[in-house]
Amino acid sequence: MFKEEAVRLAIAPIAWTNDDMPELGGNNTFEQCISEMALAGFQGSEVGNKYPRSPEVLHQALGLRGLQIASAWFSAHLTVRPYEETAEAFVAHRDFLHAMGAKVIVVSEQGRSIQGQMDTPLFDAKPVFSEDEWTLLAEGLGKLGRLAAEKGMAIVYHHHMGTGVQTAAEIARLMELTDPAEVSLLFDTGHLAFSGENPLEVLRTHLPRIKHVHLKDIRPEVVQRVKAEKLSFLQAVKAGAFTVPGDGCIEFAGIFAELAGSSYTGWFVVEAEQDPALADPLEYAIKARKYIRETSGL
């Protein structure tokens, strides 16, 4: 289905240790995490909070297991802080990822985000950007895109639950306000479905802009509970709203077919944050790898 060598498979360490709630998987070591990724059959990883920040040390650990770094999350604050603050942190992040051989940088605007607030209802308190904030975001992302291009890299914007760019309409607006040469899109199946969007429709709309893909599934009964009980994003994660592809309700066959028929090249990253005490990371990594192989041929 996919062209040979066009797509590589990675998995995010957030299934082993949660970046936002480090108590989830706190006992799981970095070495266990990357060893189990390799054992499950993945070729790459994104960067977690237990990963060494020395490129030499990280290269050595990953190389022993046949893994590479696909990318890593960067929190921008373009709508609420001076651009220079975000740019300074971004350049350091860019240079680290460049040293690790990554080609894309995952960026998400965290101005007024509620995703890290334990007690803020996810669907009731979602931020909505003002016209001025949209302008600051678009202009700032363009500048970050130019900084990435200095190293031959691209930024991929991560739409995310609990932020100002969550819905299909907000994604469309961001794409309209930014230059395709400067700002690309990260396509995340789980966040779109959680938000009530149709992932396949969003994929078809923005396919030329997509340079990175996160594969996650959702448990619809948990999403309904999140709405009914006014749970936060972090509470939703702990309740099991997300799971790996093939373990929830998203139909991935059409998504894989659309991507295979396009000119997409790059990484697919399984990223399904769960409580590792309830969802064994290795077991779910193997489950995801098996499902992707059966559904996409990868």
Summarize the structure.
With 298 residues, this protein is of the alpha/beta class.
Give your account of this protein's structure:
It holds the Pfam family AP_endonuc_2. Pathway: Polyol metabolism; myo-inositol degradation into acetyl-CoA; acetyl-CoA from myo-inositol: step 2/7. GO terms for molecular function: manganese ion binding; myo-inosose-2 dehydratase activity. Keywords: Cobalt, Lyase, Manganese. By secondary structure, the protein is an alpha/beta fold. It has 11 helices and 11 strands. It has helices at 30-39, 55-63, 83-99, 131-149, 168-177, 189-194, 199-206, 220-228, 233-239, 252-260, 281-296, and strands spanning 7-11, 44-46, 68-71, 73-76, 104-109, 154-158, 183-188, 210-215, 217-218, 242-243, 266-270. It starts with 6 loop residues before the first strand and ends with a helix.
